[in-house]
Design goal:
The chain has twelve helices and 37 strands. By secondary structure, it is of the alpha/beta class. It is elongated, with a radius of gyration of 45 Å. The two termini are 63 Å apart.
């Protein structure tokens, strides 16, 4: 405890009245002197006594308890502070500051640890400092110290400190780094059309001379975890990367720069761009045999979708028909079969043969070209009618090389409800299709959709049978041929569903799924490994037609790996979950499948600028007379400096003692008794009157 004293005034009248009384007293005193009154000094004493009584002075004594000064310490433990030996530098700096502050008299340390900001906000050091400052009395703050790499992302929120601000900088002068930036990437693009990604590779820091002279970097680009495509590109220039999306739906483009020896970190060497592929138009060639009830249904279904370009080739007048009508009088236009089946067949996304049979119109060469079209990645759907079982069946042509089933020459004419096979319950084309059917009648088994009345008996040769008819005979077989896909529907009665017969059925959904599977849409792949993320929580989805798959190996951005077990969610669908420890790019691998998932950006904001620098905080530090010192040059000592002076120098930083205190007790002693001084003033005034009355 120590004391402090002061004289206080508590006037009996307002201060303006007191000052007016002083002025009036001086005026009367001056008048007495001018007139030569002998009692002028007694009048002066009387006026003084009266004024003192009105001012009512008192003597105040305070008992004060001194308070300690407070030094604020913000310790940056964000992701960029884990690079190289920065964590060890930070530990050493914190230990030194703690010991130095403890050695100062009447000084305390308040510490806050800074972590990565939410939603990829980066290092919010100034926010942390502001919050720490708000918790302490402003009058006790003697200084603030930040241990960081200087890459702070909220400099605009720097608080108005009443004391110096210092930065102890981690890292080294020799640090350098290379990073990949995606300047421009579309969210949507048309499948098959070229798009452009704008990339840039930049080197920063103390780049080695041999690296700078080379000016080149190696990058690898992969789509959906496929085989990377290597390129050598210049550094420090915007790169226009042409890219063509291979399929509709989400396309994950992974770009990675090869690591260079000596660079600070590889965390900013990769980027993931997710582009949603949309099809401009679905080009379909519908080849029909002679007209039948289902032909118009196929046509109406395809024409109802504005995104479908349909070319319909149908046989209205077969060559063997001899009705005597001259060819010159026919209103039909010759169909460009050569152009369609030889020159432009690759322009179609899907070819449908609807109850088509060999009539001599399409030469075998054309059908051989269709086989080649499938092997190159095309898609063929065959909707078989009775003709498929006869001698003129298109199976008796080169198409037999790609068709997954052989007709037995038997056609079943009986009512039956199509069934989903065990494999069909797993296959994405037919999985859950029964849920889209009308509810079954009371007591009925199986789906509630309507019956079909014809089935071409098949002997399956390859592929997967996903739908069956009576006695488990194959109804819908799906197969992969070369790079393409083939579907064989062993009935021409699917149109009954679209007509609503006995409640109808999901023909439109079945056709949509078939078309998308044949277009190789990722969400309809039979064997697929995908992942979806919400924050840092990841859900893995593994679809398969086989047995239960093993665990998925997940490789984190830092190179560590873990195994995630999968559980069966439904037939053919297995799921698992894990929580990523940090943002970045995670790689997935299971058997021969692979994939990637990005939690937040592939290179978080913490790794956009990795070279330690005091530049971002220079303005705030200069405004508070602080300093920036590199830890690699030696840990500084802490001195006490007076307010207003420079608070940093070579090897030292300063804090400003605040001399704050807490008042424990206050004693007030009146210095005058107003009544006594009033009587004194009256007495002195009478004395002056008596003295001046004597002549």
């Amino acid at each position: 405890m120590n004391g402090a004293s002061d004289i206080l005034f508590d006037p009996l009248l307002p201060w303006p009245a007191v000052w007016a009384a002083c002025a009036l007293s001086l005026a009367f005193l001056a008048l007495g002197l001018w007139r030569g009154l002998r009692g002028w000094w007694l009048r002066a004493l009387a006026a003084a006594a009266l004024l003192v009584a009105i001012a009512n002075p008192s003597f105040q004594v305070e008992d004060r308890a001194p308070l300690t000064d407070i030094v604020l310490l913000v310790v940056d433990r964000t992701a960029s502070q884990q690079i190289a030996d920065r964590a060890e530098q930070t530990d050493a700096a914190v230990e030194r500051i703690t010991a130095a502050v403890a050695a100062l008299p009447d000084t305390e340390l308040r510490t806050v640890t800074l972590r990565d900001g939410a939603d990829n906000a980066g290092s919010l050091a100034m926010t942390a400092l502001s919050e720490l400052l708000a918790e302490e009395p402003r009058g006790r703050i003697a200084g603030a110290i930040l241990v960081s790499d200087g890459q702070v992302h909220d400099v605009e929120r720097a608080p108005d400190l009443p004391a110096p601000l210092h930065l102890l900088l981690t890292g080294h002068d020799t640090d350098w780094d290379r990073r990949l930036m995606v300047r421009n990437a579309p969210s949507f693009a048309i499948v098959g059309e070229q798009l452009t990604l704008t990339l840039r590779i930049e080197d920063s820091g103390a780049v080695p001379e041999e690296v700078a002279q080379s000016g080149l970097a190696r990058i690898a680009i992969a789509i959906d975890g496929g085989e990377p495509m290597p390129f050598t590109v210049p550094v420090g220039q915007d790169l226009e990367l042409p890219l063509t999306l291979p399929h509709g739906g989400m396309n994950v483009v992974q770009i990675e720069v090869a690591a260079t020896e000596g660079e600070l970190t590889e965390r900013n060497n990769a980027a993931v761009v997710q582009i949603n592929g949309v099809r401009d138009r679905l080009r379909v060639l519908l080849v029909s045999g002679e007209p039948h009830a289902g032909e118009r249904t196929w046509r109406n279904l395809l024409k109802s979708d504005s995104s479908v370009d349909l070319v319909h080739f149908t046989i209205l007048r077969p060559p063997e028909k001899q009705d005597g009508v001259p060819v010159t009088e026919l209103s039909l236009i010759a169909f460009p079969t050569r152009e369609l089946f030889l020159e432009k067949v690759d322009e179609f996304d899907l070819i449908i043969f609807d109850r088509y049979k060999r009539r001599g119109i399409l030469p075998m060469l054309y059908l051989e070209n269709v086989v080649s079209y499938v092997e190159r990645g095309g898609a063929v759907l065959v909707a078989a009618g009775p003709d498929f079982a006869g001698a003129e069946s298109i199976y008796r042509s080169p198409l037999s090389e790609i068709l997954p089933g052989e007709p037995t020459a038997r056609v079943l004419e009986q009512g039956y409800r199509p069934q989903i096979t065990e494999t069909g319950h797993k296959h994405p084309v037919t999985e859950g299709l029964e849920a889209l059917a009308p509810p079954p009648e009371d007591g009925a088994e199986g789906p509630g959709w309507g019956r079909w009345f014809r089935l071409v008996d098949l002997l399956p040769e390859s592929g997967q049978t996903v739908m069956s008819g009576p006695d488990d005979r194959p109804l819908l077989i799906l197969d992969r041929v070369g790079e393409g896909r083939v579907a064989l529907l062993a009935s021409d009665h699917a149109w009954l569903w679209s007509r609503g017969f006995e409640g109808g059925g999901p023909q439109l959904e079945l056709l949509r799924r078939l078309a998308h599977w044949m277009m190789k849409e990722p969400e309809l792949e039979e064997e697929a490994l995908t992942a979806s993320a919400e924050g840092l929580d990841v859900t893995l989805t593994r679809r398969t037609l086989g047995e239960a798959p093993g665990p998925v190996e997940v490789t984190a951005p830092d190179g560590s790996s873990r195994l995630v077990e999968l559980r069966e969610a439904s037939p053919g669908l297995f799921m698992g979950q894990f929580t990523g420890p940090e943002t970045g790019l995670y790689r997935l691998a299971q058997d021969e499948l692979s994939g990637v998932v990005a939690l937040g950006p592939a290179a978080p904001r913490e790794f956009e600028e990795t070279i330690a620098s005091g530049a971002p905080l220079a303005g705030a530090i200069d405004a508070h007379r602080g300093g920036t010192l590199r830890i690699e040059e030696g840990l500084p000592s802490i001195r006490q400096v007076r307010e207003g002076r420079s608070a940093a120098g070579r090897g030292w930083i300063g804090i400003t003692p605040r001399e704050a205190y807490r008042t424990a007790d206050v004693t007030v002693i009146p210095l005058v008794a107003p009544l006594l001084f009033l009587l004194m003033a009256i007495g002195l005034t009478l004395g002056a009157w008596l003295r001046e009355g004597r002549r």
